[in-house]
Amino acid sequence: MRFILIFFSFLLFLEFFLRFQEEIFLITQYKKIHCRTEIDLFLCPNIQKQFKRFDNSYWKISTNSFGERITSDTQDSREFLEEIWFIGDSISFGYLVDDEFSVPYLLNTKQQIPVRNLGVDSLGTNGIYRRLHLSLQVHKKTKIQTLIWIYNTSDFYDDEKEKLFDQFFYRNAYKVHHFLGSNFNLYNSLFWLKRKIIYQNELKVPEIHTEVSDDHITFTNISYLVEYIKKNPRIKNFVIVIYPGMDLKTKRPDIKSKVTQKIFDFFKKHQITIVDVRDAFFLSQQSPYFEFDGHPNEVGYQLILLSLIDFLKQK
Question: What pTM did the predictor assign?
Answer without folding.
Answer: 0.92
